[in-house]
């Protein structure tokens, strides 16, 4: 990799760090190419990204971003995961680390907050942005559904009363 390619990579990583909501740092020592490919696919499916980068270039790209506090984690074989939905990348990384102990969670940055491995696990336990939206819509729809049920109940009761009178009248005529 020549100097121009390194500068392009640093600029690209810097742009990525500036635009994302979360950056996770992991060790991937011992993972095969197929396992890293599987992890990348899972991240992509969740709307996140995964990059295996050179530590020195990544630390240089972190300078001037809100994730500059992560620079001490870049020792050994590291990979970064990033996403706009803070929970998505954490869920995938924690889930993958449970099934494959070769992936070790080192730390993360969410906005200006730095998290350790336990913080990443706590973040992964939160509902995702889509799940939160669904819960909010459910909460907003629930009162309207209840109001409609309450308003329809008296009419339903009247209909049942009229039906009972009609059946009673039919039985009286038949007798």
Topology:
Layout: H1 3-19, E1 22-27, H2 33-45, E2 48-52, H3 55-62, E3 78-83, H4 86-99, E4 104-110, E5 113-115, H5 117-125, H6 129-174
Antiparallel strand pairs: 1-3, 1-4, 2-3, 4-5
Helix pairs in contact: 1-3, 4-5
List the main descriptive attributes of the protein structure presented here.
Alpha-Beta Plaits; elongated; alpha+beta; 175 residues; 5-stranded antiparallel sheet
Explain what you see.
This protein has 175 residues and is an alpha+beta fold. It has two domains: 3-126, Alpha-Beta Plaits, CATH 3.30.70.1730; 128-175. The protein has helices at residues 3-19, 33-45, 55-62, 86-99, 117-125, 129-174; strands at residues 22-27, 48-52, 78-83, 104-110, 113-115. The chain has a five-stranded antiparallel beta sheet. Strand 4 (104-110) and strand 5 (113-115) form a beta hairpin. Helix 1 (3-19) crosses helix 3 and helix 4 packs across helix 5. The longest helix is centred in the last third of the chain and has 46 residues, at 129-174. The radius of gyration is 28 Å and the shape is elongated. It starts with a helix and ends with a helix. The mean pLDDT is 84.
Quick summary:
Helices cover 61% and strands 15% of the residues. By secondary structure, the chain is an alpha+beta fold.
What distance lies between the first and last C-alpha atoms, to the nearest angstrom? 101 Å
Proportion of residues in extended strands = 15-25%
**Major sheet description:** 5 strands, antiparallel
**H and E order:** HEHEHEHEEHH
CATH class category name of the largest domain: Alpha Beta
CATH topology of the largest domain: Alpha-Beta Plaits
CATH superfamily of the largest domain: Ribosomal protein L10, N-terminal RNA-binding domain
Q: Say how many strands there are.
A: 5
Oligomer: single chain
Unreliable stretches (pLDDT < 50, length at least 5) are none
What CATH architecture of the largest domain do you see? Answer: 2-Layer Sandwich
